[in-house]
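Record Succinate--CoA ligase subunit alpha, 288 aa.
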Amino acid sequence: MTNLFEGKNVIVQGMTGAHGSFQTKAMLAAGTNVIAGVTPGKQGQEIEGVKVYDSIKAIQETNQVDITVICVPAPYAKAAILEAINAKIPLIIIITEGIPVHDMLAVNKALKGSQSTLLGPNSPGALLPGINKLGIIPANMSRRGNAAIVSRSGTLTYETMAGLTDKGIGQKYVIGIGGDIIHGMGYKECLELFENDEEVDQIILIGEIGGQDEIEAAHYIKGCVTKPVFAYIAGHHAPEGIQLGHAGAILGSALESADNKTKILAESGVKTAGSITELITFIASARG
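=>
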């Protein structure tokens, strides 16, 4: 999976939109090799000197595509994702939020047996400082190093990354899996990536209320992860039955609460914190 995130040739679907063009500029500034964009009907245009095509197929006539970053509006995102799957792009990163659940069910069906791995939707993407900025995670808050972050929350991802950087602790990976109920890569896949990457020496997991993902991650950590893991779960004072932020952040029962998830992670050998500030302190202290 390391090779997926370190893919050389990146395209942006929805490049000509306000969001797509802004993020394309930021990715280029961070050193990402954005070779083309896709917006049907806009072939021939250029954004920041990068050519726009009507389709991925048109790009692949002359270039290999390793990664696509999708910034297409929600009503058109399903078609864009399916186009990327059919084009056999190894890594598909979906920044778009608000994609209908039924659309993602169709996407998940298409993914089965495909050659593509999906990150998102409603994801800030992934950042490998000094290697690839794939999405909207701000590179100026990062520092290249050996810690690895995986999170459901974009804002808490940035806060954690910036806090580590301020302490002189660099990052190898910063990955946002997104907050939607139906999504691609989750904690387990990222934890496996971090565990198998010899350059990673500390793992940071950021979670929140709702769903079972963090509980499943705790079980995986207990059985399969040998590196030190630090975690913070947001939402300790969240009321049951009310959605807070992400579509997946709804506290359905006490089992999905921040308190219970924190307890299970701690029982699995994870160093848990009560705040991001405390989390950063624990990580820094562990480095001596």
